[in-house]
Amino acid sequence: MLTRRSLLTSGAAGLLAGCAARTPRADTEAPLTFSDAPIARYDFTRIATAPLILERIELLWINKNEHMIVGHVRGGLTAYLPSNKRFGDDLQLFSSRVLPYFLGQDLRLIEHHIETCARANYKIVGLPFWNHIGHVEMLALEAIGQASKRPVFELVGSSNRSSVAVYLSNRDRHTTPEQEIDQFMLPRIEATGARAVKLGVGGRMSRNVDAWEGRSEALVSRARKVLGDKCDIAVDANGSYDAATAIEVGRMLERYGVWFFEEPCPFEEFEMTRQVTQALAVTVAGGEQDSSAAKWRWMIANRMVDVVQPDLFYAGGFLRSLRYAQAAAAAGMDCIPHAPRAHAGAATMLNFIACLERPGAFHEFSAKAALAEPAYDYAPRLTIRNGEIAVPTGPGFGIAYDVDAVRRIGQAVAFEVGEIDHGD
Length: 424
Fold this sequence. Notes:
Number of domains: 2
Oligomer: single chain
Mean pLDDT: 90
Shape: globular
Number of helices: 13
Distance between the termini: 52 Å
Low-confidence stretches: 1-40
CATH superfamily of the largest domain: Enolase-like C-terminal domain
Strand content: 15-25%
Structural class: alpha/beta
CATH topology of the largest domain: TIM Barrel
Helix content: 25-40%
Number of strands: 15
């Protein structure tokens, strides 16, 4: 176990009480409450002593699901961050509503810039907006880590673990149970030593309709028979059911000893999901779609789910997600973030899990990518061995990229940065 000097000055219990301040700077606003600014304030100026002025951001198109975001900092420091698959959906939003609030600014004060940007854009905050913010925030943490020669987990606290056990995640619904378990999942389990999997049940926001009649139970039954009792099985319904149907499905999952039941109801139906959580013995998980601090506060205070699953990008970044996890821990709830990524893209999740007080037993890694070669070279390789991945310990998120290789395959994406629009 690695022990690092903690930079935190208030415990997780204070989060639920609305105490948002952690080492607030004297020259910034008074700390805001959990409901309107769930960003723990860290004084990165004490870690990186020289300003880190963001001069420009460059986007490189790697493939249909991924961009490489390159942050150029005055003085020559360059930070690289693989995007998630949603980043390229709305570059107009990024260039006109988000990026202008960060260009020319000191990345050490990233939390202040996020608050300014969010207040200015309050009419359009939601998952696409916070997804862009999350990318800029983690690019800033990468730059701060590079400048200070420290890993991100050390920037924000301490490491509680040096490796992370993973579950292989796949939510295809067009396969038969035999294709999904015997032909797809089993070879990947044998190759990686993974001790847990996540499968797709229901039909994805399908209003109680299965992918085809009887598939969900046949899939879970096949998984338990083939993978055995030593493999933990989780399922993701992607909001397929109303409360009554989800409870019925949950009873079936209990019979097969399923580990957790993710997003049983449409994600906006908080009361519906809470009913399912209260009715079932199987663990209910959720939260990947939620970027609102007020909603997170309600979810935790009312135990809408048993396990919280913030997405580090969708939720608006590493620090916002960490705050939710800390608040959940104070309420006796585990955190298993939504992170269906692999290769270098998993480095953010690994740093995050290293910080957690109450992580779940296993954490998400893309089953499809588990045996695939990455699109570009990087080090250290994030490879599953005996079901676990070592947390990278290098500066930032711990990944060194073959920059020449990235630039050979990455096509520059042109976008025009707009002026700040103050709205009406």
